[in-house]
Amino acid sequence: MHIPVNGPDPVPQRIDRLALRGRPGDPAIVDRAGTLDYAAFDRAVGALATALLDHAVAGDRIACWLPKTRMACLLPLACARAGLVHVPVNPLLKRAQVAHILSDSGAVLCISQAARLATLEPGDAAGATMIAEEAVPMDRTPMAASTRDADPHVLAQILYTSGSTGRPKGVMLSHANLWLGAVSVAHYLGLAADDRVLALLPLSFDYGQNQLLGAWAAGACVHPLDYLTAGDAVKAVARHGITTLAGVPPLWVQLAEAKWPADGAPTLRRITNTGGRLSVPLVRRLRALFPTARLFSMYGLTEAFRSTYLDPPLIDEHPESIGTAIPFAEVLVVAPDGRIADDGEAGELVHAGPLVAQGYWQDAARTAERFRPAPAGSVLGGTAVWSGDTVMRDAAGLLRFVGRDDEMIKSAGNRISPTEVEEAAVAAGAAEAVALGVADERLGQSVLLIARGDGDGAALLAAMKRDLPNFMVPARILWLDDLPRNANGKLDRAALKKEHAA
């Protein structure tokens, strides 16, 4: 287990106890409804837990289909306190996707907004009671927090993937998974009680939720924001003196293109990225835009939450790296023959340790595909997540993301990483780019590059011919005014492939 000297406490607890981590009087959450200090926050979690038990018994699933309202922020801890299983539903999902999650999870209660609930049709609720958030009583007698010795390995949450490549599947997360993830991230980010975290990412996204849990693990304050434009985030950073900002690459592109004050964002202490690798030009732009903020480049997957981070002092020299294992994680690079790959040799990223989820909800077949025994070289052993992502480790132990096996382009016998093609395109002037493989009778597949920006197509192609080997140069470049994004804000490769590369 990777635990640094003087590292975080590895003993997990039930996640409702995160409401007890801050000092009474210190703010835990600031939103449109006002401010809750940690004492009021704990009482609100307890009151909501009591109210939930009007509709459910221990072990029942409770769905939350809400934007970043106060109730959406409280529900992860309130469900935990009541012994229930939280099922967050992305507010961007529509009727058919929501109906699938309600049915698949067997939720007995769905808390949403009246307008959203009105979009569901008879039968969509799958037996769940539907309640608008304003109808949930918050004046109930607060339930006390769980005890320190309560079992932390029971199911706490079912987190559904975005479903861009098929129907969403539910990842089962225990209290231990969530607690250790929160403590680990709070530790290596160096979060403290005086930090103010702007929560931009969806709360149904693993890191979106960790914005809350990690902040509360440190006794810090969360400012949830449902933004319409990047400018809304810029204003919120200045208005609230935000110290911590998390994003995924497409969001960082938008923020880098936004108009910031002349002095940038002097209160920012750290900015963090996961959900895809930042291009080298974007790293350089963010470093110039926020010169006093520490930039954390990270890699994660829903099935294990987070695997790696790059220590910020290394970002300028190694902007393409995803770093090394986070606390409580063991990360290995496994060659196709099952041995631990050598330095400089590509292999599959395999994650072992207590952050590994409990599998997929009611899906033994897909669980067996992804959750398998750790390789022989593992120190921790047990069940590991085999990510399907190809990475490479250098002599210093730093990892570099190469690509997903199911996204690799096979052309004339060559395996091409879309990431490398995309980074070359961005370096040559594209604002964003997605590389896809399209059928080619002669080559097997050729490279289609879909780009956004004001660049010159001929100049872009010339630069890529200069910087890339011939087999990686796109056969065709398609310029679009905008690129589609999935419910978690990532570029939607599946939608682009369906429309342009089928």
Which features characterize this protein?
about 500 residues, alpha/beta, twelve-stranded mixed beta sheet
Provide structural commentary.
This protein has 502 residues and is of the alpha/beta class. It has a domain at 407-500: GMP Synthetase, Chain A, domain 3, CATH 3.30.300. The protein has helices spanning 38-52, 70-81, 95-105, 114-117, 175-189, 206-217, 230-240, 249-257, 280-289, 364-370, 418-427, 457-467, 493-500; strands at 27-31, 34-37, 61-64, 85-88, 109-112, 129-132, 155-160, 170-174, 196-199, 221-224, 244-247, 270-273, 294-299, 308-310, 321-325, 330-334, 346-352, 371-373, 383-393, 399-404, 409-411, 414-416, 432-440, 444-452, 476-480. β3, α2 (70-81) and β4 (85-88) form a beta-alpha-beta unit. α1 (38-52) packs across α2 (70-81), α5 packs across α6 (206-217) and α7 (230-240) packs across α8. The chain is globular, with a radius of gyration of 23 Å. 50% of the residues are buried.
